[in-house]
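Morning!

This is the sequence you dropped in the shared folder:
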Amino acid sequence: MGSSFVPGLKVSRHTVLRKRRILPLKGEVKKNLGDEVAASEVVAETYLPGKVHPMNVANLLGVVPADLPRCMVRKEGEAVQRNEVLARSTSFFGLFKNEVTAKVEGTLENVSTITGQVMVREKPTPVQVRAFVDGTVVEIIPQEGVVLETTATYIQGIFGIGGETQGRITVLVEAPGEELTAESIRSEHAGQVLVGGAFASLAALRKAVEVGAAGVVVGGIDALDLVEFMGYDLGVAITGSERLGLTLIVTEGFGHVAMAERTFSLLTELSGSEASINGSTQIRAGVIRPEIIVTRAREQREAPPGDELKGLEVGDLVRIIRQPHFGELGTVTSLPHELSTLESESRARVLEVTLATGQILRLPRANTEVIAG
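The structure's back. C-alpha cells below.
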C-alpha cells in the first residue's frame, strides 16, 4: 500500500530539535562549534546601516558647491555629534559668520562639489540573533549564524501572533474546556506564559498585556476579538512580526474549542518550567507553525533519535479539522487504499477514525491532521 502524508502538529514529550539561527544580512558569528549556549545568549550579530540625512549646505551657507570643501569644519569619514558645526563661511573680512550644524549624530559620509549636498549617516543599528533555546552549536554558517541542537518537549499550535519570547509556564485553569478569564490574570503573572483552556476573551488578552505576561496559550479564540485586539484584519500574510506586547498561541482553532487533552496534560506537567515560545504562523506553502519549546537540562539530553517524517499509519493519533467534528481527536483504525465517493460526489482517499467515545467516522484524509508524538 502506498504512503499517505497528512499535515501534522507535533506534540512531543521528548524530541531532538535543530534550530537555525540566522542573521538577516552577513555579520559576525559569536559562537564556536560545540559551544553550549543558553536561550538568552547572542549567537550572531550584525549592523544595519543608519539612515542618511542630506543637507544642502552650500545653499545654507550661500556659497557655490565648488567652494564647499574649504568651508567644511568636519571632513568625510569623521564622526559628528548632533548640533556640532559641520561647515562655516565668513564674509566682510571675517566680521560675519554663517554656520551649519548637524541635525543628527553619526558619520559625515559625503561632501558633493556638484550639488552642494552633505550626507550625514546615523549610527548603524545593531541586530542580534539570540539562541532562543538552550542547546549545542552543531554547525557554523560563516557570517550568517549557527545551527543549534537540543533535546526538548515540543508543542506546536495551529495559529499564533507575536514573535519569539521566553517565560515560565503557568496554567490558570483546571481543565482543557475552561475559559481563561481576565479575573484569573494578576500582576504576579508578569513575564510568564499563561495557559488557558478552551477560550481566551478579548478582555483576558488585554489584561495579559496590561500585567506584562510574555504569552498566552489557549485552545481557541474568537476571530473578531483577534481583529479588535490587533487593530487590523490579519489577512493571509505570515504572522510573528506584530508588536502587541504579547505572543499568542492557539492550539486548536477559532471559537470555543477545548484544548486537546494530550496538549493540556503536557503543559500542566510543564507548569513552572521555562519555555521558549514563538507565534509565527504561515498557512500557505512552506507551512510555519507556532511553537512551545521546553529544553531539557544538559544531563537529560541523551535523547532518542529525532522524529522522522513517515506515512500515515493505522494507530496514529489524528485531529479532525472540518465540521461537524472539528477539533476532536481519534485513532486511525483503517486506511482503505481505494478511492471512495464522498457526499459531494467527488472521489478521494479516506480513513476510518475511532473517537474516544467509540464512534467510528469515515473521513477524507484531507480533513484530518496527524498529532505527531
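Headline: The mean pLDDT is 88.

More detail when I'm at my desk.
O.
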